[in-house]
Amino acid sequence: MNSSGMRSAGLGLAVVAALVMGAVGCRPTPTKAAGTTTAPVRNMAAAAGTGTGGACVFVKPDGAQKLGHVGWGFRVTGTDQWVYGAVENPTDKLYTPPGGDIGAWHAQGTYARMLSEMSRDAHYPGRSTHPYSRYRCTSSSTSDVGAARAMIRTVESRGFLVGVDPRTGALTSRDCLDATYDVLRAYRTRHLTPAPKLYVPNVWVETLVLWSDRTL
């Protein structure tokens, strides 16, 4: 689906997302999701050092009342290191102003460490009831690690919102999907599908064409 089509679909889902996610944010739930498997992007970890980039999206399919929750990962180009993180929103609030506690975190390590820590919710700010259980990855011939790091600082400080922005009156979002998309877009990830405001994370994840699909 092209960008304009996705934005139309996103508007159609906005009311549902605002009502349901407004109550629970991007909160994980205790039920572990059934995994899916397709052909992976091979040698994702081994390809470090070749000059290519790479990106991953981590998914809690049952998060936010089954609307889904997502986090990100990207390779520090030319190394075996990855930067990964998420906005967890452990307070479950519909709105948290800039500078408030939104459960934002990020870390750096090898590809194997990234998968291990995401599968255990090792950095979840509080007691996690449901770790990430699915991830999708892609290689990328373009990358901008500096811009992605700068965007992490932005999403970690801009607060959380699903619904009406009290400052502008606009129906919009600054949630886990917005954070993941904005970081990976700043990285210049190839094959990254647009994510309209208030879009449902589980719906967006299915639009990632040419990305691997594996369970943690």
From TrEMBL:
Range of residues in the leader sequence: 1-33
Keywords in alphabetical order: Signal
Name of protein: Peptidoglycan binding-like domain-containing protein
Source species of the chain: Streptomyces pseudovenezuelae
